[in-house]
Design a protein that fits this description.
- By secondary structure, the protein is an alpha+beta fold.
- The protein is built from five helices and 15 strands.
- The strands form four sheets. The chain has a seven-stranded antiparallel sheet with strand order 1-2-7-3-4-5-6.
- Helix 3 runs antiparallel to helix 4.
- The chain is flat and about 115 Å long.
- It starts with 10 loop residues before the first helix and ends in a 34-residue tail after the last helix.
Amino acid sequence: MRPGPPRRRSPALVLELAALAVVLAALASCVLFRVTGGHWERVESPSMGTAAPVGTLLWVRPATVEELRVGDVVTFHRPGVVDGPVYSHRVRALLEDGTFETRGDLSGDDKWRVDEQDLVGRVVWAWPGAGRLVEATPVLLAGGLLTAIVVALVRRSGKLPLAVVGAALTLTAAMVVHQPLTAVEQLGPAAPASAGAVPSVRLVSTGLLPVRLASAVGGDVELGPGQAGVVAPVVEAGRLQLDLRPAVPPWVWVLIVVACLAPAVVSAWRPGPPPPPRRPSPARRPHRRLPGRAGHARPLSRV
């Protein structure tokens, strides 16, 4: 018996295997990084500006003061507060007594000196936005698990639409809970204004998307993630009155529309399952009539 032609792998299977390989490689890299002493920190304040915007995931490796260089971004405990929060600032100066001074790119020089005991490590990688994904992981996992259960309970023709709807609802829930897209934060108090002028404030963008800030008294500023700018807002009842809108270029909206339509296009293009083969009905042997008495037929006996 000759072997048949080799089976061709479908593009979908190749993509699934490639995605699985990427996920396994990423997990292996994370495990190796952790085993070798590294850990991760999520940026929660805008003090480092565009170098590490809010929501950035920092990859921190253990280091000693002798290994540091001026300009490195390091993670450390505030001197004298071991159990307190950690800071990630830039090394400003290395001192002869084995300590070093730090500064934030936006917040300016720090008022302390950090020694070997308070040093946590040196930042080797900074992934903007990845910290937001880590923050939303509980919502994404819960939504993904619920979607998988619902999809498993329906028949095959309804799996893809339900999966798309479940993914959209999960992403919407994560955005509503954590609001990662557009936000601004004030850096310090408002600057005093001269006679007849409007006081100005310095704001920094802390969202994932660039924003445009406009004031009713005139003037606007466009800020990317981690960028700071000065604007003169209207102050009513102690609150700043500003018009905040996402400053997304048109091609980004085109990509979003294409991504939303992609599942429908794939579902329409992909052929459905072939119909089940029809089982042939059992053949019946015809009866032959033999001549006999009038009005009677003698059937042919079976052998």
